[in-house]
C-alpha cells in the first residue's frame, strides 16, 4: 500500500474538515435561520459541487488559482512558486468540493432545532453565542458530526478535482485515489486491490458511524 | 410596570396597541389569533416591531424607529409559554440553573422558596423527558423565576394541561404573585383565570386593545366590544356569600334589595365576595312564579331593555342591585309581551350558576 499517499490523504481530509467546521458551521447556521429569499442563491451555490462534474469544478479552481489570477499571483509573490499542483491548492479545491457534504447536514440539523427553545434561552438572559453553543449545538450534534464525517470521507475519495488541480506529485498531491488510478494504469492490480479494499472498508465504516448517529427516519 | 405603544405588521396581521399598566399582574385577554402572543414577544424582544416604544418598569427597552433597542437577553423579561419548552438535553436541575446566576440563586433563600412553592425538590435530579405535563410546566415556571426576572411573561401557561393541572398551575401562579411578588403579564383566554390572577386587564381583538380596566369591569362591559363573545358568559356578577345551606345543598348569594341567588354549595366563607357566571340562555322568564318549581331561583325582576340580535332577543333585567341578561326567542318575547318596565320572574337552576374561582 502507498503509505505516503495515505498519510497525505489523511492530512488533506483532516485540514479540509477542520476548515469546513470553522466556516461551514456559521454559514449553515445562517442558512438555517435566515429567510429563504436571502438564502436561496447561497443555498444553491453551496449545493453546486454535488451536481457539477468534478472536472468542471477542478477546471475553474485551476483557473482561479493560476498565476494569471489575483489569488495565484499573490501566492506566487509570497511563496516563490505557483499555487496549482501544491498541497495548498488541493486544500482549497477540497474545501469547495466537500462544502455541501458538510454544510447541508449542518443546515438540516440546525433547522430541526426548535426556534422557541432559542427564544426561551434569550429571554432567560443568555446571549446569541451562549444560546448557540449550549442549546443549538448540543441539540444538533448528531447532524454536525455526520456532516464532518461525510466531509472527511468525501475528501478522501475525491479524484477528478484533485487530478485537475494537483496532478499526481508524490508526497505533495498524490492522494490515495490518484495512487489507485496510477496503480491501475501501471497494471499493478495487486496493489490496486489493497488500496481499493481499504477505501471501501473505510467508507463503509464511516457511513455506519453517521447512520448510527442519526435518529431513525432522518438518515441522509 | 409596563407601558407600551406598538405597531407591528406580520403578513396580513397588524398589532396596533397602546397600553399602560401598574400591575402587578396585567391580564391580556382575547381569542386565539388576536395578537396576544405577538404582544408578549414584542415585550420580550423576540420580535423587532417596526414602530414601538416599550417601557418595562423603569427602563425603556425599545424605542423604534431610531431609538434604543435592548436585546432580549438584557431585558429580564422571562417567558413561559403554553408548552414548557424545557431544554431536552439538560436535567431538571440544569434547566433551572440555565439563566445567568440562576445556579447560585437556586441555593439561596429565594431559590429554596421557589423550589418549595413549585414542589420541584423531588424532580431536581431527573431528566426532563420523563416528566409529566404538569411537572414540566412547574419546572418551566421555576426556570423563569430563577432568572430573577423584572417581569414574568406568561403565554397561556396552563392551556395545554387538563382542568385539574391547569387549576394547579393557577394556584401556583397566585402563590408566585403573593409570596414571591413577581410582576407578570399573563395571557389567557379563560375568564376565571383572568379574574383570579389579574389586577388589571386589556382585551385584544384583531390586534387592537378593545377594553382596558379591572378584570371584573372589563368582563362585564357591554357585548358591543365583543368581550362577552370571547368570555362566552353573558352574566358576570361579583356577589357576597350570605350563608350556606348545607342541608339544602345551596349557597345563598346576596343580590341586594332582599334578593338572593342560590348557587351550588360552595366553600367561600360568608361575607366574602365571589365571582359567578351565568349564560343568558340559561335564564328562563315567566310572568308569575309557577307552583311546584324545582329551580331554586325564582327572582322577581324588572325588564330594563330589549335588544334584537339576529334571531334572539337579549333582555336586560334588574334583579336586586344587579343587572342580569336573559336570551329568548322573539316568539317568547312576543308572547310574554315584554317591554321595558315589565315585571317578570327569572327562573335559574343552581347548576347554571358557575362559580369562577
What does this 3D model show about the protein?
The complex is a heterodimer of chains A (220) and B (357). Chain A is mainly alpha-helical and 220 residues long. Helices cover 80% and strands 0% of the residues of chain A. Chain A has a single domain, classed as MetI-like (MetI-like fold), CATH 1.10.3720.10. Chain A is built from ten helices and no strands. In chain A, α5 runs antiparallel to α8. Chain A is globular. Chain B has 357 residues and is of the alpha+beta class. Chain B has two domains: 2-231, 3-Layer(aba) Sandwich (Rossmann fold), CATH 3.40.50.300; 235-355, RNA polymerase II/Efflux pump adaptor protein, barrel-sandwich hybrid domain (OB fold (Dihydrolipoamide Acetyltransferase, E2P)). Chain B is 24% helix and 36% strand. Chain B has ten helices and 20 strands. Chain B has a six-stranded mixed β-sheet, with helices on both faces. In chain B, strands 13-12-11-14-20 form a five-stranded antiparallel β-sheet. Chain B has a five-stranded antiparallel β-sheet with strand order 15-19-16-17-18. In chain B, a hairpin with a 2-residue loop joins β9 (200-205) and β10 (208-213). Classes of the chains: A mainly alpha (220), B alpha+beta (357). Chains A and B meet through α6 and α7 of A and β6 of B.
Question: Can you summarize this structure?
Answer:
The complex is a heterodimer of chains A (about 220) and B (about 350). Chain A has about 220 residues and is mainly α.
Using only CA atoms, what is the Rg of chain B?
A: 23 Å
Query: What level of helicity do the residues of chain A show?
Result: over 70%
Q: Write down the Rg of chain A.
A: 19 Å
| Count of DSSP-assigned helices of chain B | 10
Given as residue ranges, the uncertain stretches of chain B (5+ residues, pLDDT < 50) are none
CATH class of chain A: Mainly Alpha
CATH superfamily of chain A: MetI-like
CATH architecture heading of chain A: Orthogonal Bundle
Amino acid at each position: 500500500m502507498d503509505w505516503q499517499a495515505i498519510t497525505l490523504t489523511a492530512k488533506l481530509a483532516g485540514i479540509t474538515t477542520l476548515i469546513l467546521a470553522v466556516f461551514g458551521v456559521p454559514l449553515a447556521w445562517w442558512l438555517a435561520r435566515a429567510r429563504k429569499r436571502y438564502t436561496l442563491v447561497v443555498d444553491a451555490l453551496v449545493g453546486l459541487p454535488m451536481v457539477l462534474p468534478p472536472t468542471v469544478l477542478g477546471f475553474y479552481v485551476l483557473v482561479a488559482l493560476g498565476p494569471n489570477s489575483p489569488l495565484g499571483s499573490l501566492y506566487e509573490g509570497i511563496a516563490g512558486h505557483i499555487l496549482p499542483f501544491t498541497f495548498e491548492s488541493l486544500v482549497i479545491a477540497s474545501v469547495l468540493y466537500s462544502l455541501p457534504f458538510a454544510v447541508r447536514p449542518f443546515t438540516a440539523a440546525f433547522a430541526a432545532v426548535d426556534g422557541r427553545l432559542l427564544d426561551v434561552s434569550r429571554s432567560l438572559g443568555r446571549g446569541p453565542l451562549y444560546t448557540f453553543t449550549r442549546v443549538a449545538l448540543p441539540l444538533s450534534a448528531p447532524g454536525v458530526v455526520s456532516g464532518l464525517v461525510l466531509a472527511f470521507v468525501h475528501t478522501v475519495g475525491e479524484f477528478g478535482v484533485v487530478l485537475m488541480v494537483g496532478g499526481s506529485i508524490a508526497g505533495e498531491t498524490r492522494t490515495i485515489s490518484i495512487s489507485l488510478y496510477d496503480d491501475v494504469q501501471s497494471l499493478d492490480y495487486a496493489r490496486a486491490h489493497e488500496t481499493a479494499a481499504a477505501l471501501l472498508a473505510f467508507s463503509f465504516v464511516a457511513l455506519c458511524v453517521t447512520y448510527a448517529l442519526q435518529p431513525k427516519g432522518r438518515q441522509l | 410596570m409596563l407601558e407600551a405603544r406598538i405597531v407591528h405588521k406580520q403578513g396580513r396581521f397588524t398589532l396596533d396597541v397602546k397600553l399602560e399598566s401598574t400591575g402587578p399582574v396585567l391580564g391580556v385577554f382575547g381569542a386565539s389569533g388576536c395578537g396576544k402572543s405577538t404582544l408578549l414577544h414584542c415585550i420580550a424582544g423576540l420580535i423587532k416591531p417596526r414602530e414601538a416604544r416599550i417601557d418595562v418598569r423603569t427602563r425603556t427597552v425599545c424605542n423604534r424607529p431610531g431609538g434604543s433597542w435592548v436585546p432580549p437577553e438584557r431585558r429580564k423579561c422571562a417567558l413561559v409559554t403554553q408548552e414548557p419548552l424545557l431544554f431536552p438535553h439538560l436535567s431538571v436541575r440544569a434547566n433551572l440553573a440555565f439563566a445567568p446566576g440562576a445556579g447560585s440563586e437556586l441555593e439561596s433563600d429565594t431559590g429554596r422558596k421557589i423550589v418549595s412553592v413549585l414542589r420541584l425538590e423531588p424532580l431536581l435530579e431527573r431528566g426532563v423527558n420523563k416528566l409529566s405535563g404538569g411537572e414540566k410546566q412547574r419546572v418551566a415556571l421555576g426556570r423563569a423565576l430563577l432568572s430573577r426576572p423584572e417581569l414574568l411573561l406568561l403565554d397561556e401557561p396552563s392551556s395545554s394541561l387538563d382542568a385539574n393541572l391547569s387549576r394547579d398551575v393557577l394556584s401556583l401562579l397566585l402563590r408566585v404573585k403573593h409570596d414571591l411578588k413577581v410582576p407578570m403579564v399573563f395571557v389567557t383566554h379563560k375568564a376565571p383565570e383572568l379574574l383570579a390572577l389579574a389586577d388589571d386587564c386589556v382585551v385584544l381583538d384583531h390586534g387592537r386593545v378593545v377594553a382596558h380596566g379591572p378584570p371584573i369591569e372589563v368582563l362585564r362591559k357591554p357585548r358591543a366590544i365583543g368581550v362577552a363573545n370571547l368570555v362566552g358568559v353573558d352574566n358576570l356578577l361579583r356577589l357576597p356569600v350570605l350563608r350556606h345551606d348545607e342541608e339544602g345543598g345551596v349557597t345563598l348569594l346576596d343580590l341586594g334589595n332582599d334578593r338572593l341567588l342560590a348557587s351550588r354549595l360552595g366553600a367561600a366563607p360568608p361575607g366574602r365576595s365571589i365571582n359567578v357566571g351565568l349564560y343568558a340562555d340559561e335564564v328562563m322568564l315567566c310572568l308569575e312564579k309557577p307552583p311546584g318549581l324545582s329551580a331554586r331561583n325564582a327572582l322577581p325582576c324588572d325588564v330594563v331593555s330589549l335588544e334584537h340580535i339576529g334571531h334572539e332577543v337579549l333582555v336586560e333585567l334588574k334583579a336586586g342591585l344587579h343587572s342580569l341578561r336573559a336570551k329568548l326567542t322573539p316568539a317568547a318575547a312576543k308572547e310574554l309581551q315584554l317591554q321595558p318596565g315589565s315585571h317578570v320572574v327569572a327562573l335559574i337552576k343552581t347548576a347554571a350558576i358557575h362559580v369562577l374561582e
